[in-house]
Design a protein that fits this description.
The chain is α/β, with parallel strands linked by helices. It is 48% helix and 13% strand. The chain has a single domain, classed as Alpha-Beta Barrel (TIM Barrel). The structure holds 2'-deoxyinosine and zinc ion. InterPro entries: A_deaminase, A_deaminase_dom, Ado/ade_deaminase, Metal_Hydrolase.
């Protein structure tokens, strides 16, 4: 008999997270404490519960641009080495305690230099925090592997420099590169030099695309820039015609959707975030249902745990409630994610065979 799909059991299941922003995952209490310590005086409230509610409500705006405005308050309090170490350590601990066994956590070094840190110092501090948090969690029996992704902001002009840092820190805990920020008006090809450089360096990168804008953004990310994965990519459904499908007939895939599916290009979907930014109408109507049925390389992610008030456990539980997924589908999401990680193949395989499969087998055969 499979174990019941309760919140507690889903927390016990091994989970893999590829898309989580460091500056979107702070504990609300930490935001308040760091604001007090660093003299940041623009928080909307200094009450923990009110602040959690405020972040969720302000981010639940129906627009990516307004969703992103909430980051002023988190970025505002992460401007020192100590703050970066603390936030990174708590991130690793929180993910490990939630049953995440492998995570790629991204952040934009260029956003943390207001008080004089260099990009290298920002990266060093975050990696130090991940090491401390990982060790603290392991001491409690929660083993997690955490890697960093370096993000460049798409409206700015630091991507080539940040890409070089992703390569320079590749053996120190940085697994890849990303671009983020407002999508409409800032196509991926603006940063083509960074992506061409990364490809010459045999480096990995993902691109936020198909979230706040549609197919042209996804097409550029894949066909011009050569992205390994799509950050969200949820709007790929705009290239899938379900209306044309008759009874029992499969939906018709356009050429781009076919390419993404055929090449097994991973989609870093984040259901709650996608609802908040207006990329999906609700969890029940989220394209993850269709994309899973059609066997795209679907992965489940948190994006921003603070803004979405979510965890990997709550995202998976929400999908179980909306789509009635069994353990086998949660395992499929998890293996998809681990296969798509920017970690060497042998290390991915070891986590799949030694951690993920035995973990789900225990729950399925409980
Ligand atoms: O989902 C997102 N789409 C685009 N940009 C995002 C998303 N979540 C966070 N960001 C931005 C805001 C953060 O300050 C930045 C670096 O993590 O990335
Ligand atoms: Zn994101």
């Amino acid at each position: 008999m499979p174990a019941p799909l309760t919140e507690e059991n889903i927390r016990r299941a091994p989970k893999v997270l590829l898309h989580d922003h460091l500056d979107g995952g702070l504990r609300p209490a930490t935001v308040i404490e760091l604001a007090q310590q660093t003299g940041y005086d623009k928080l909307p409230t200094t009450d923990v519960d009110e602040l959690s509610t405020w972040f969720y409500g302000a981010a639940h705006s129906g627009s990516l641009e307004r969703y992103l405005e909430t980051f002023a308050h988190t970025v505002g309090v992460i401007q020192t080495r100590d703050a970066l170490i603390r936030v990174a350590a708590e991130c690793a601990e929180d993910l490990a305690d939630d049953g995440v066994v492998y995570a790629e956590v991204r952040f934009a070094p260029e956003l943390h230099v207001e008080q004089g840190l260099t990009h290298e110092e920002v990266i060093d501090a975050v990696l130090e925090g991940f090491a401390r948090g990982t060790a603290a969690a392991a001491a409690r029996g929660h083993v997690i592997v955490v890697r960093a992704l370096l993000t460049a902001m798409r409206h700015a002009a630091h991507s080539r420099e940040i890409a070089a840092l992703a390569v320079a820190f590749r053996d120190k805990g940085v697994a890849g590169f990303d671009i983020a920020g407002a999508e409409k008006g800032f196509p991926p090809s603006r940063h083509l030099d960074a992506f061409e450089y990364l490809r010459r360096e045999n480096a990995h990168f993902t691109i936020h695309a198909g979230e706040g804008f549609g197919l042209p953004s996804i097409w550029e990310a894949i066909q011009w820039c050569g992205a390994d994965r799509l950050g969200h990519g949820v709007r790929i459904v705009e290239d899938i015609d379900t209306a044309a499908a008759g009874d029992g007939e499969a939906p018709a895939l356009g050429l781009l959707a076919q390419y993404v599916r055929d090449k097994r290009i991973p989609l870093e979907l984040a259901p709650t975030s996608n609802v908040q930014t207006g990329a999906a109408a609700s969890i029940a109507e989220h394209p993850i249902g269709l994309l899973t049925d059609l066997k795209f390389r679907v992965t489940v992610n948190t994006d921003n745990r603070l803004m979405s008030g979510c965890t990997m456990t709550s995202e998976m539980l929400g999908l179980v409630e909306a789509f009635d997924y069994p353990w086998e589908t949660l395992q499929w999401f998890t293996v998809n994610a681990m296969k798509s990680a920017f970690l060497p193949f042998d290390e991915r395989l070891a986590i799949i065979n030694d951690v993920i499969k035995p973990g789900y087998a225990e729950l399925i055969n409980a």
